[in-house]
Every structure is written in structure tokens, then in C-alpha cells.
Amino acid sequence: MEEKKGRDTLSRFFRNVVLILAAWWLINNVKVLGAVLSKVANILLPFIIGGAIAFIINIPMTFFEKHMSWIKLKVIRRIISIILSIAIVSLIIYLIINLIVPELGAIINMLITNIPYYITEVKELAVKWDLTEYIEKLNLDETSLKAQILSIASNVFTSSISLVSSVFGVVSTAIISIIFAIYVLASKEKIAETLKTLLNVYAPKKAKKIIDLGSLTNVSFKSFFTVQCLEAIILGVLCYIGMLILKIPYAIPISVLISVTALVPIVGGIVGIIIGAILIVAVEPTKALPFIIFMVVLQQFEGNVIYPKVVGESLGLPGILVLVAVTLGGNMFGVLGMLLSVPTAVVIYTLVKNDIKDKTKKDNKKEIKETKPKKEIKKA
Prior knowledge:
Structural class: mainly alpha
Radius of gyration: 28 Å
Order of helices and strands: HHHHHHHHHHHHHH
Number of helices: 14
Shape: globular
Number of strands: 0
Strand content: under 5%
């Protein structure tokens, strides 16, 4: 017995040493790990994108299937649900692009047209505030300013095209992703059953834990994206109402922009405010500061009052861990890392919390058992 305890203690010691060394290596080689994961992700890109598309479309698809129980044939119900879900997601993307892109084009044209007016205004203010000497050093010229605005617009457009190309790759990658997504959606139960069978055959001892982990991951990611979309819509609607009341220009495109950027935790809200303020400055500079103040107040109200009510305990992740997760995810994998870091952190946090709870229960039971007084044996 003592020999077995000694072997177990030694085994635990070596295991802990290995874990500590692995953690130390990971901390000191975060960039190397990120590079390796990025390379693997690039190879599997079509299937990763397909899986992401399937995951997003599965949310409305499940809703449609649940409310179309009157269709008896499951195959027909699934096909109709997939078609409706893809149509709705595509329509939302189209509306977002259609609302934002034309307005950005109109603003650029307006900036170019109004350059002479802006130059005159700046020179008048310079005379008023005795800053003529400094303004003359800037060499404000209509032709050069037009060229700079067109250059910035061109760079933004090129960067956007480059971003889309880097995410979706060539046309063949997009086609493979969509086909893979449709296949996953059409036979998700069969795929899940096959994976369970494989786990039970090749890893019977770990099968239940892996299945539970998969279920927790699915719930966490689904809750996160559902909550983020709902919060983004609420924030966009409130932004639109507030901008109408304050008579701030471009209420619709800026509200849509705020909703879209709000999908990225923490950073997205700040980016939305900055871009919105720049757009407003181009049209009505005096409204930019009220817009920034309004948005800061709105985001505080939304984060401290609306968010807890809507989300409740659905995520259960402390705010400081959200910040850490978004920062690490953004540094390692960019915007995609920011989006996926929070639900991933939710999974890790839940696993650690449950493990601590289980170990605490075991320790308490052991302590009660050891402190429980033994019954005296009655003498015959």
C-alpha cells in the first residue's frame, strides 16, 4: 500500500514538473506558437471558414426547424430551414454593405467638392486666433488636399479588398467553404453520432469528458454570438434614436456601423465611435463632440444596465478576463482572435471553475469523514 502511494506521489510530481515546464515554454514562445497555429489555420482555411459559416447559419436554422414542426418530413424541413437561414444572413450582409459603402463614397465626394470652403474657413480662423504664421507653413493647397483625400480613400479601399482576399482566399476556397458548410448543416446529427462512436471506440475512458467539453464549447460559442448580435442591434437602435434627437447627420449609416463594430468586444465600440466622429466632422464639425459624449454615455448605460439584463449569467466571465482574452486574441490572431477569444475564455474559465468546485466537494467530504467520531463498541 505504502509503495503504491509512493509511486502515485512520484507520478504526480513528474506530471506537475512537465506541466510547469510546458507552461513556461508557452509563455516564452507565444509568438512561435501563434505562427505555428496560423500556418495550420491557413492550410485548413476552407474548412475553418465552412465550419464558421455552418455554426452561424445553424443558429437561425435551429429556430426555423423548431417552428416548422408541422412539416412531417425531416429532410424537407432541413432543406427549407437551410435555404431560409442562408437567405436571411446574405440579406443582412447586403443591407449592411448597401447602407455604409454608398454613404462613405458620398462623404469622400463631398470632402473633395468642399475643399475650397474648408481652406477659407481655416484661414479665417487662423486670422481670428492669430495663427496665420503656422497655417502658412502647412501650405494648404486645393490640388494637394484633393490628391491626399483620394490617396487615403484608395488606400482604405485597397486594404478592404486585401482583407477580404486574405480571409476568403481565392474563389475556389469560398466555394469549398460553402459546400462544406451546407454538408455539415445537412448531416450534423450523423456527424455528431459518428464522432461519438469514434470516441467510444478509441478513447472510451475520455469519451464522456470530450463530449461534455464539445457540448460546453458549442453552448458557450452559441450564447456568445447570439448575445453579441442582440446587444449590437440594441446599441444600434439606441444610437439611431439618440442621433435623431440630437440632430446629428448620417444617423442610419453610423448606427449600422456602430452595430457592426460592437460585435467585436471592447475594441469594436471604440473603433465605431472614432470612425463615426470622423464622418460627422466631414459634414458638420460642431456635432462631432456631442456625438462622442452621447456614445460614451450610451455605451456606459448599455454596458452597466442593459447588458446585465439581456445577458444575465449566460457567459459568466469576469470583465477583467474578457479584457485579457480580447488583448491576447487580438495580438496573436487579429480581428478573428478578438471574436473567438471571449467564448474560448468562457470554456476554459468554466472548466477550471467546475474542477475547483469538484475538488472542493471531495476535500470537504474527506474532512467530514475524518472528523466524524467513531461509534463506541458495546461490550457484550
